[in-house]
Amino acid sequence: MDDWKTRTKLIHSGIRRSQYGEVAEAIFLTQGFVYDSAEQAEARFLEAGPDEFIYARYGNPTVRMFEDRIAALEGAEDAFAAASGMAAVNGALTSMLKAGDHVVSARALFGSCLYILEEVLARYGVEVTFVDGTDLDQWKKAINKNTKAVFFETMSNPTLEVVDLPAVAKLAHRVGAKVIVDNVFATPVFSRALELGADVVVYSATKHIDGQGRALGGVILGTKEFIRKTVEPYMKHTGGSMSPFTAWVMLKGLETLDLRVRAQAASAQAMAEALQWDARLERVIYPGLEQHPQHVLATEMMEKPGTVLSIDIKGGQEAAFRFLNALKIMVISNNLGDAKSIVTHPATTTHQRLPDDQKAALGISPGLVRISLGIEDTEDLIADVKQALDAV
Ligand SMILES: Cc1ncc(COP(=O)(O)O)c(C=O)c1O
Q1: Distance of CA 204 from the midpoint of ligand 1 (Å)
Q2: How much is the pLDDT for 155?
């Protein structure tokens, strides 16, 4: 099974069939499990075997199938499925940190990730130093003997900055710090974050893994020791576990993940190329374009540079809003990785909370629009964007 290719793993890894031999994965929609005897209950609480479950917050056969399948895809020893991407980010960080620890994080983060690092961890006595993720000197200066973890999005939301994962991992590992990455934009199909030096990889499964806008979910991947000894006790006792129904939705999502993500990335590349010299745009941000500052690094780190691009429209917010309102196929929303193409105006939605100077420092300008490519026809999508730019 270890030598199966991605698309085979995505269909068959982790399958657990019941006595009925069902083809599609069964949904074990149950909060708990009965024991044959009081002695069996006692023994299971002491140590549950691989096919023994206690309570859905601790684990469930459908959830375990999802964990085993995504772990096989990622090449991780184990995984813990979470109720949302944010439950996964919070679980990965909070389960391993304590007051007095030090964390170094990239500054360019999704708003809720920033909230955990800036507000939650600080409130519990964890010191956090923020750096420009693309500047290795800043990482070098900030990481010290007390640093327990470094955290960053391998490709940042929404400005698609690529962090040099192998180089940052080398600096972190020198002081024994864990490298925890949010790998949503790189996707589990194109990125091998563990091979590049990450110790822990986190995904919002709400994005490409479901990929059809149905459910919230997340997952934390790492060594068996870290997942079962550090993450699991924290998650199962604080309530951030994935529901069995969500796990079933995510299993179905995984079956088509590779096909969808490759189609989306091909459209992203085609759209970036079609728009890169458009005079109505200040810039087109996509790591697959040679003009992207980390194009070479992105090519080394990922098989393809993702399914999202950002454009900065001349004329600021007014022009950006006119563009959004003129689109006929793409929908205005704030998710990404969906089968439907989605456009977002980060400055007034996902990153609204940030003060203007911070937005400016992160490149979240008033004209910036994030485009998450869906699986519609590429030519139709490019035509939709061009007619909306004409309307601006
Ligand atoms: C980079 C990144 N990390 C984490 C999340 C949080 O995921 P979720 O909405 O599933 O909690 C998101 C999106 O919302 C995201 O874009």
Answers
A1: 5
A2: 96
Residue 356 in contact with residue 302, Cβ under 8 Å? no
CA of 115 to the centre of ligand 1 (A): 12
- The Å distance, Cα 308 to ligand 1 centre, comes to 14
Is the CB of 184 within 6 Å of ligand 1?
Answer: yes
User: CA distances (Å), 225 to each of 76, 80, 99, in order?
Assistant: 11, 12, 22
Quote the pLDDT of residue 371: 98
Written as six digits, the tokens of 385 are 């964007």
User: What pLDDT is recorded for position 1?
Assistant: 73
Q: What is the CATH number of domain 259-391?
A: 3.90.1150.10
pLDDT tens string 323-339: 999 999 999 999 999 99
Instruction: Quickly list H helices, the chain.
Output: 6-12, 38-46, 61-74, 85-94, 111-115, 121-123, 136-142, 165-174, 187-190, 193-196, 224-225, 232-238, 244-275, 295-301, 316-326, 356-362, 378-391
Q: Class of the 6-255 domain?
A: alpha beta
pLDDT of residue 353: 83
Ligand 1 centre to CA of 277 (Å) is: 31
Q: Which atom of ligand 1 is nearest to the CA of 109?
A: 1
Residues of the chain with pLDDT under 70: none
197 CA → ligand 1 middle, Å: 22
**pLDDT value at residue 243:** 97
CA distance 203 to 20: 32
Residue 50: what pLDDT? 86
Find out whether the beta carbon of 337 lies less than 6 Å from any atom of ligand 1. Answer: no
Q: Do domains 6-255 and 259-391 have the same CATH topology?
A: no
Measured from the Cα of 205, ligand 1's closest atom is 10
- The token duo for 88 is 């996964």
Residue 155 Cβ < 6 Å to ligand 1: no
Residues comprising the chain, all counted: 392
What residues contact residue 33 under an 8 Å CB cut-off, 6+ apart? Answer: 52, 53, 54, 55
Is 153 close to ligand 1, i.e. is its CB under 6 Å away?
yes
Closest residue CA from atom 7 of ligand 1: 85
C-alpha span between 197 and 305 (Å, rounded) = 18
pTM above 0.85, yes or no: yes
Output the pLDDT for position 196.
Answer: 97
- Per domain, the residue ranges of the chain are 6-255, 259-391
Q: Distance (Å, rounded) from C-alpha 181 to C-alpha 105?
A: 10
